[in-house]
Every structure is written in C-alpha cells, then in structure tokens.
# Entry
Amino acid sequence: MATELDLPDDVAAWVRTAYKEHAQTVLDALCSFRAGYGTVATDRVLRCIVSAAAGDAGRVKKYVELAKKDWRDVVTAAEYRYPDVRVRDLSKPFDM
# Structure
C-alpha cells in the first residue's frame, strides 16, 4: 500500500488546503489509487484528480474511477476547457 510519503509534496499540501476536514480521506484514496495503478497514477494524474474535483471529496472518488478507465479523461477535465483550449499544465507542481 502506498503511503502519503509516496505522493508528491505539492499534491499532499494542496489536498490539506483544499479538502480541509476531508483531507485524510482524499489522501487515502490517492494512496490507494497509486498503490493499485502505479503506472497510471502519475504525479500529473494525481494533480488532475484533485484539481478537477475542486474541493469536493466525493468527486475525488469519481475522478479516481475515471482515471482507472482512461486517465486521459481526467487530464482533459482538469487541464482543458471545451473544446480544446488548454488552460493549465498539471505535469508541473502546484504553485503553493
């Protein structure tokens, strides 16, 4: 099982800030995802999950499940605006 230490520092800090009382639940979900889907659960995909979920811990689960099926859908949700305008690059760490 992956631990919080296996998550990028910027992601863990973002989660603690954006998800406050639900932070541990979100961190656990991300750790579990990374442990089971290591090749898919890249730093970029983790950033995309927490960014797209926009502070809603329930949506984190939705985006984790979506990433398990096709990680590109999560990247699109977090980094692009319809139809194909890139608005952020989450391959780079969050600026905290």
